[in-house]
Design a protein that fits this description.
Elements (H helix, E strand, L loop, with lengths): L1 H19 L14 E7 L2 E7 L3 E2 L5 E9 L3 E4 L6 E2 L2 E14 L2 E11 L4 E5 L3 E6 L7 E4 L3 E5 L26 H26 L9 H14 L6 H20 L8 H9 L6 H19 L6 H18 L16
Parallel strand pairs: 3-12
Antiparallel strand pairs: 1-2, 2-4, 4-8, 5-10, 6-7, 7-8, 9-12, 10-11
Helix pairs in contact: 3-4, 3-7, 4-6, 4-7, 5-6
């Protein structure tokens, strides 16, 4: 009786044991390969990957660009706003820097979408590597031109749908109510104009505007007290704008709207500042541009030194004479 029960138990467990010995077919299936291109220039190695080589108008395409460089290099990726080549740019995502045995890996991902079927071009892109110490000569790596095919949803023998002609606009019949509405609008406008004139005549005299250097100091204090100081690139951009608006309000120079190169060029021909003050401005603006465009991250100590530099510059030039029409900022800071 015991032997009979043992044989019956083995018979029931046999399918389970044989099933466990079979390989996992789904786990061994190969993952479809993606398009991959590698370009090297000196110590810099750039890899371009595409999530697919052929899509439909309903799909999105991910373009993954990575650059492997030694630690002493900063990587500048190309910037795009609304489109990348023939594709519409949906999203841009910068990857966190990763330290590997071969160097630092920088990365950026663009999510692209097509509109209609056809062949879409992705133009060559330039990646710039700048050495943050010693030689400042850039290393430029260019990716190849790429073409992505976007397949149509239509069958091979199906025709493209035709758009109907535009219906012409309908004529609106004239109504006397239009004249009443127009007359009411004119009377309302006259009444509003009389009200504004009367209010202007009764308005009290406003207190004199604050001096430009006082406004600049207040804006620096607000910047330090706010949450913007945790975002170093935004913090330096805001600090640079405060200094530029102060110079524009105090000395009548078009500092806020000019690029750093244009402002420094006009600064060399100006007799308002001393040579030492010009050098301070030049060093500060160059440092701000490196943080904004070359993604250089300063230390907290360097950030506070830049704040003190701006304060000292404003305090040293606050007593300089300025044209009366430029001595007010009008709340622009």
């Amino acid at each position: 009786m015991t032997l009979h029960r043992t044989l019956l138990l083995l018979f029931l467990l046999l399918p389970t044991l044989t099933g466990c010995s079979q390989p996992d077919k789904q786990a061994n299936e190969a993952v479809p390969a993606i398009s991959r291109h590698e370009i090297s220039n000196g110590p810099i190695r750039v890899t371009l990957e595409l999530s697919a080589e052929k899509i439909t108008p309903a799909d999105t395409l991910q373009l993954h660009l990575t650059a492997l460089a030694p630690e002493e290099f900063d990587i500048i990726f190309p910037e795009f706003s609304a489109s990348l080549g023939d594709f519409t740019l949906q999203e841009t995502h910068s990857l966190t820097k990763e330290l590997t045995a071969s160097g630092v890996r920088h990365g950026r991902i663009w999510t692209l979408s097509p509109f209609l079927a056809g062949e879409y071009a992705i133009p060559a892109m330039e990646i710039i590597a700048l050495k943050n110490t010693g030689d400042k000569s850039p290393i430029v790596i260019s990716t190849p031109d790429l073409t992505i095919k976007v397949s149509s949803f239509l069958q091979p023998n199906e025709k493209e749908p035709e758009l109907s002609d535009i219906v012409p606009p309908l004529e609106v019949p004239f109504s006397p109510l239009y004249l009443v509405f127009a007359a009411g609008t004119v009377l309302l406008g006259i009444g509003l104009l009389l009200y504004l004139v009367k209010r202007r005549s009764c308005r009290k005299t406003l207190p004199p505007a604050l001096a430009a250097h006082i406004i600049a100091f207040e804006q620096i204090d607000k910047l330090l007290a706010g949450s913007e100081k945790t975002d170093i690139p935004h913090f330096f951009n805001r600090l640079s704008l405060i200094l530029r608006y102060y110079i524009e309000a105090q000395f009548g120079m078009n500092a806020a709207e000019q690029t750093s190169e244009e402002f420094l060029a006009s600064l060399h021909h100006s007799s308002v500042f001393s040579s030492e003050q010009k050098k301070v401005l030049e060093n500060f603006l160059l440092q701000s541009d490196l943080i904004k465009f070359a993604k250089r991250m300063p230390t907290d100590r360097e950030a506070m030194q830049s704040v003190e530099l701006c304060r000292n510059f404003i305090a040293a030039t606050a007593e300089n004479a300025a044209p009366e029409e430029d001595a007010r900022t009008g709340g622009k800071l």
